[in-house]
Specification:
Elements lengths: L17 H22 L6 H8 L13 H13 L3 H24 L4 H8 L6 H9 L3 H22 L2 H17 L3 H13 L2 H7 L4 H21 L1 H4 L12 H28 L10 H22 L10 H16 L8 H24 L7 H9 L6 E3 L1 H10 L5 E3 L23 H6 L34
C-alpha cells in the first residue's frame, strides 16, 4: 500500500504578494510626508485654504466640494492642527492613488502584473511631481475615480442590487472630492450604452439605486452650493469663459499631451518593441469612455466659449487609464513590455529624491513673522478677521484662538462686530471685499500701521508685516 505524499504549498514570491505592493506604496507616501514635515515650516496655497476649512465641519466651504476638508478634519483629530496633519492627509491621498491603480489592474491580472502596472501612474507628471508639492482636491479625486471605475466594472459583471448601490456611493464620493470626478464616470456609463453586451446593465430599474445613493450623498453640499451660488461658481472663471472656444479646444489638446504624453510615449515604444499577447478585457469600453470624456469637456468648452483647460483637470481621466495601458503592454511578449513600469519606478524615485531640493529653494523658511503678526492682531479687539488664506493659516498656527478666516471675493459678507480687514501690501482683493460689507458695519481703530484711506465705513487696514532676514 503506497502512502500518499503530502505536498507543502509553496509560499508566493515577494512580488506576488499584495501586502508587498501596498507596503511599497505606503512607504513612498510616508517618505514624502516626512520630507514635507522636515522642510516645510509654513502653509501657503491650497493647503492654507484646506487648513482653514478643516477647522470645522460644514456642508460647503467655497468653490470646491467638501470631502477633502471633511477628511482633513478627521486627520486633524489624530495629529492635531498643523503641518503634520496636512502631510498625513497628503500621504493618505497619494497612497490611495497608487493603491487604487493597483486594485484596478488586479482585476485584469495577477498580483505581480498589477503592481508593475500601478508603477505606470508615475508617468503622469501631475501624480509623480506636482502632487508631491501641491494640490489638494485633485489628489483625492484621482484616488477615488479608479475605485468608482472598479465598482462599475463589478456592476457590469454581476448586476446585483448591492453593486448598483456601491457604484452610487463610489461615484458620489468622487464628485464630493472634485466635480471633475464625474467626467470619466459619465463617459464610462455612456460607453457601456454603446456596447450591446453591456447596455442592459445600465438600462435597468436598478440603476435608480445608483442615482439614489449618489443623490443622497450630494444633496447636502448641493443645497449649500445653491444657497451660496456666488461662492460655488467662483472657480468657473478659471475656464476663461468668453475667451474663445477655438483657443479652448487647443488648450484641451495641450492638456491631453501634458497629462498623458509621457505615458503614451513609453507605452507606444514598448508596444513597438514587443509581440502581440493576450487581450485585455473591457479595453474597448475604456477606449470609448476616454473618447466620450474628452467630448464632454470639448462640449463644455464650446457651450461656454471657454479658452482654458488645465492639465490637472484631466488627471481623474488619466488615473484609471494608466494601469490599464500598462496591463495591455505587460500582456505582450518581450522584455520591453516592462518599459513603462521601469520608467515609472525611475521617475518616482527621481521625484522623491528632488523633493528636498524643491522645498529648500521654494520654501526656505517662514517669509513672515506670524507670531508678531498674531500679537498685533490680538490687540485690536476685532471679533472677526477676514484675511487672505495664507496669512490666515499662518496666524491661526501662531494663535488658534484668533477669529481669522479666509477672505473670499464673492458671496455675502456678514458683519458681526468690529472687523479687522487685513492683507498683504499688494492685496488687490481688499477693495472688492470692502465694497461688499454692510453700510452700518462699524469701523475700528486698530493699533497697527494704517496704509490707504479710511472709507468712512470701515477702515481699510493693511498690517505691516515683518519679514525674516
Amino acid at each position: 500500500m503506497t502512502a500518499a505524499t503530502a505536498t507543502t504549498p509553496t509560499r508566493p514570491r515577494l512580488l506576488d504578494r499584495t501586502l508587498f505592493w501596498l507596503g511599497l506604496f505606503a512607504a513612498y507616501a510616508v517618505a514624502q510626508a516626512a520630507i514635507r514635515v522636515h522642510f516645510k515650516t509654513s502653509i501657503f496655497g491650497d493647503e492654507a485654504e484646506l487648513f482653514l476649512w478643516a477647522r470645522e465641519l460644514a456642508w460647503g466651504y467655497g468653490v470646491q466640494p467638501p470631502l477633502y476638508a471633511w477628511l482633513q478634519w478627521g486627520v486633524n483629530q489624530v495629529f492635531g492642527d498643523g503641518i503634520v496633519a496636512l502631510a498625513a492627509m497628503r500621504a493618505l491621498c497619494l497612497f490611495g492613488i497608487y493603491s487604487a491603480g493597483f486594485l484596478l489592474a488586479r482585476r485584469f491580472g495577477p498580483v505581480r502584473l498589477a503592481g508593475l502596472a500601478a508603477l505606470a501612474l508615475f508617468l503622469i507628471p501631475e501624480i509623480s511631481q506636482t502632487f508631491l508639492r501641491t494640490r489638494t482636491h485633485n489628489l483625492l479625486v484621482s484616488a477615488l475615480v479608479p475605485l468608482a471605475v472598479l465598482a462599475f466594472l463589478v456592476l457590469l459583471d454581476h448586476r446585483r442590487p448591492r453593486d448598483y448601490l456601491l457604484f452610487g456611493v463610489a461615484a458620489g464620493l468622487a464628485v464630493l472630492a472634485k466635480a471633475t470626478g464625474a467626467i470619466f464616470l459619465l463617459g464610462l456609463i455612456g460607453a457601456a450604452l454603446t456596447l450591446p453586451d453591456r447596455r442592459e446593465a445600465v438600462l435597468t430599474r436598478r440603476v435608480l439605486l445608483t442615482a439614489g445613493a449618489a443623490g443622497l450623498m450630494l444633496a447636502g453640499p448641493a443645497l449649500w452650493s445653491y444657497a451660496n451660488l456666488d461662492l460655488a461658481t467662483d472657480s468657473l472663471a478659471k475656464f476663461e469663459p468668453g475667451g474663445g472656444w477655438r483657443v479652448g479646444i487647443v488648450s484641451l489638446g495641450w492638456a491631453v499631451v501634458a497629462s498623458v504624453g509621457f505615458l503614451a510615449g513609453f507605452v507606444a515604444l514598448a508596444a513597438a518593441s514587443t509581440r502581440r499577447g493576450s487581450e485585455v478585457p473591457d479595453l474597448d469600453l475604456f477606449l470609448r469612455a476616454t473618447g466620450l470624456s474628452l467630448l464632454i469637456i470639448a462640449a463644455v468648452v464650446v457651450a461656454t466659449d471657454s479658452a482654458e483647460v488645465k492639465e490637472r483637470w484631466l488627471v481623474p481621466i488619466a488615473a484609471p487609464l494608466a494601469p490599464l495601458a500598462a496591463v495591455w503592454v505587460l500582456n505582450r511578449r518581450g522584455w520591453m513590455r516592462f518599459l513603462p513600469s521601469a520608467a515609472g519606478a525611475i521617475v518616482a524615485l527621481g521625484m522623491l529624491w528632488s523633493l528636498p531640493g524643491y522645498f529648500r529653494q521654494n520654501e526656505p523658511g517662514p517669509r513672515t513673522d506670524f507670531a508678531a503678526l498674531a500679537e498685533a492682531m490680538r490687540t485690536t479687539g476685532a471679533v472677526s478677521m477676514p484675511i487672505p488664506d495664507d496669512m490666515a493659516a499662518g496666524v491661526a498656527l501662531a494663535d488658534p484662538a484668533l477669529p481669522v478666516f479666509e477672505r473670499v471675493d464673492a458671496g455675502p459678507v456678514p458683519c458681526e462686530g468690529p472687523i479687522l480687514l487685513a492683507g498683504w501690501g499688494d492685496d488687490i482683493g481688499l477693495s472688492a471685499f470692502l465694497s461688499r460689507l454692510p453700510a452700518d458695519c462699524p469701523a475700528m481703530a486698530a493699533p497697527v500701521r494704517m496704509v490707504g484711506q479710511d472709507s468712512g465705513k470701515v477702515a481699510l487696514q493693511v498690517i505691516e508685516i515683518r519679514t525674516s532676514d
